[in-house]
């Protein structure tokens, strides 16, 4: 029990804070709770983004000492301690230190909570500009050559995977777009794929959700007669499989479902791709690198950045140029070389 003198002292301190415009909060509020509250309160947050924010917070904030600090007690030193600590954490999946990108995404959630605490006058400081975060490394994704792409398709475990890999490389779809591709989206008459939605697996909620495409841009991907013929053969095989499975089959109208009609798990797709890439002798390949391969092969075939950007569904041509800067530089080099080779050679004997 506090004596009167101690109580009077604390009351005087709180009154002093109120006079300074500082709002007095109960010390039961922990910083980790505030970070989660900020995520819950963010308007217009899509299911995937919401899940990603929660996952980053759970793995890299709530697991750290900073989560147990009372909001009103937070100091810049605590923030610096979090940066130093998180830089030593290793990924559960790769067993390697967290990338600069991952740490910065986790810091974004902390920063938002700190800004809210400052605006609410629960702390009297803002995240310091001197805070040193790990550098974000620009990783140049691998693009398969045409020969490697054909080897992957050839060595696929079954025809379903072979057609999936070919569609990835031919169209540059995102993983969630290919997994969610429905037969209704195939326009056989116009010879095009009308992408209108994607299918996402929400890991925390353990369920699938169909949602709008990234950037909310529907897009049309033209395809040729040969591809459509292969797609028809794929559909026949799928119908035969459906008949064989009988009551086991769960119809979702998907172009690339599992052997029982259900959506293809992203985790299984990663495993299948790596297994078949090893069989083909082309080394480690990620699903996103198949999409990157599509863009690279299109540019090598002479297609413009604008065309490739529209097919891949980038938010702008600028994004495409940034991703494929190396190909853009090669085009510029070839342009100069094509003129240089035709100009009169300089040199020879001087008169």
Show the helix and strand layout.
Blueprint (H helix, E strand, L loop, with lengths): L3 H16 L11 H11 L5 H14 L15 H11 L13 H20 L26 H9 L4 H13 L3 H5 L6 E2 L4 E4 L2 E5 L4 E5 L7 E4 L2 H21 L20 H15 L6 H14 L4 H8 L4 H7 L1 H16 L11
Helix pairs in contact: 2-3, 2-5, 3-5, 6-7, 6-10, 7-11, 11-12, 12-13
Rounded average pLDDT:
88
The helix fraction, in percent, is 40-55%
Strand order of the largest sheet: 1-2-5
Helix count?
Answer: 14
Number of strands: 5
Report the sheet-strand fraction.
5-15%
Structural class: mainly alpha
Structure notes:
- With 351 residues, the chain is mostly helical.
- It has 14 helices and 5 strands.
- The strands form 2 sheets. It has a 3-stranded antiparallel β-sheet, with no helix packed on it.
- A hairpin with a 4-residue loop joins strand 1 and strand 2.
- It starts with a helix and ends in an 11-residue tail after the last helix.
- 25% of the residues are buried.
């Amino acid at each position: 029990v506090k004596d009167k003198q101690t109580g009077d002292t604390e009351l005087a301190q709180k009154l002093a804070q109120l006079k300074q415009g500082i709002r007095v909060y109960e010390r039961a509020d922990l910083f980790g709770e505030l970070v989660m509250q900020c995520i819950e309160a963010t308007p217009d947050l899509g299911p995937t983004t919401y899940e990603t924010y929660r996952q980053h917070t759970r793995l890299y904030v709530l697991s750290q000492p900073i989560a147990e600090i009372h909001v009103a007690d937070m100091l810049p030193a605590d923030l610096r301690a979090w940066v130093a600590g998180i830089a030593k954490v290793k990924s559960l999946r790769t067993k390697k230190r967290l990338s600069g990108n991952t740490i910065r995404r986790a810091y974004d959630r902390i920063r938002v909570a700190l800004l809210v605490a400052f605006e609410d006058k629960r702390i009297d400081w803002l995240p310091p500009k001197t805070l040193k975060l790990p550098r974000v490394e620009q990783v140049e994704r691998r693009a398969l050559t045409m020969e490697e792409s054909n080897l992957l398709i050839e060595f696929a475990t079954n025809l379903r995977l072979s057609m999936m890999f070919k569609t990835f490389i031919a169209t540059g779809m995102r993983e969630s777009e290919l997994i969610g591709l429905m037969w209704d989206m195939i326009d056989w008459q116009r010879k095009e794929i009308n992408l209108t939605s994607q299918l996402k697996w929400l890991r925390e909620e353990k369920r699938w959700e169909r949602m709008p495409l990234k950037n909310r841009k529907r897009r049309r991907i033209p395809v040729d007669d040969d591809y459509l013929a292969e797609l028809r053969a794929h559909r026949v095989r799928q119908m035969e499989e459906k008949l064989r499975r009988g009551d086991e089959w769960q119809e979702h109208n998907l172009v690339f479902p599992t052997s029982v009609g259900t959506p293809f798990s992203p985790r299984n797709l990663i495993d299948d791709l790596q297994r078949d890439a090893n069989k083909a002798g082309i080394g480690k390949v990620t699903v996103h690198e198949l999409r990157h391969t599509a863009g690279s092969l299109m540019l090598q075939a002479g297609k413009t950045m604008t065309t490739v950007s529209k097919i891949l569904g980038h938010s702008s041509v600028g994004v495409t140029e940034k991703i494929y800067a190396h190909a853009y530089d090669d085009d510029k080099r070839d342009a100069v070389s094509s003129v240089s080779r035709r100009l009169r050679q300089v040199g020879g004997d001087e008169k």
